[in-house]
From TrEMBL:
Keyword annotations of the record: Cell projection, Coiled coil
One of the GO biological process terms: cilium assembly
Coiled-coil regions, chain positions: 80-111
A Gene Ontology cellular-component term: ciliary basal body
Origin: domain of life: Eukaryota
Name of the molecule in the record: IFT20 protein
PANTHER family linked to this entry: INTRAFLAGELLAR TRANSPORT PROTEIN 20 HOMOLOG
Gene: Ift20
Keyword Coiled coil: yes
Cellular location(s): Cell projection, Cilium
Organism: Oreocharis arfaki (tit berrypecker)
Pfam families cross-referenced by the UniProt entry: IFT20
Keyword match Coiled coil: yes
Length: 133
């Protein structure tokens, strides 16, 4: 015990296997425990970085998918606008055609009435001509 105290004063210690150590057994055990805790912490940090990396990758993929869908939606909206404009132009053409046909119909109606009047006059003339004979 005296030898152990003298060695302890010199900073030398025996461990549980009676090997000569520079560190006190308790300090050596704490150091080993701290080393294990550090290793576990580094492993957990690496795992966390891997998870975060995966999450960032997933968010990037979702952003790309959202951008792609947005472009599709813009394309569809532009297509609908152009179709609507085409329809509007077609409608205007058809309205113009209807107006033109109505005017033509009115001209034909007047012409028909005029021809009917001429026919009536001629029939009346023929009737008078026949009665005179």
């Amino acid at each position: 015990a005296m030898a152990q105290a003298a060695l302890g004063a010199a900073g030398l210690h025996f461990d549980e296997l009676n090997k000569l150590r520079v560190l006190e057994p308790e300090v050596a055990a704490q150091t080993a425990q701290l080393r294990e805790e550090c290793r576990a912490f580094v492993d957990k940090t690496a795992e966390f970085q891997k998870i975060v990396g995966g999450l960032i990758e997933l968010v990037d993929q979702l952003a790309k998918a959202a951008e792609s869908e947005k472009m599709k939606a813009i394309g569809a909206r532009n297509l609908l606008k152009s179709i609507a404009k085409q329809r509007e132009a077609q409608e205007q053409q058809l309205q113009a055609l209807i107006a033109e046909k109505k005017m033509q119909l009115e001209r034909y109606r007047i012409e028909y009435e005029t021809l009917c009047k001429i026919e009536a006059d001629q029939n009346e003339f023929i009737d008078q001509f026949i009665f005179q004979k």
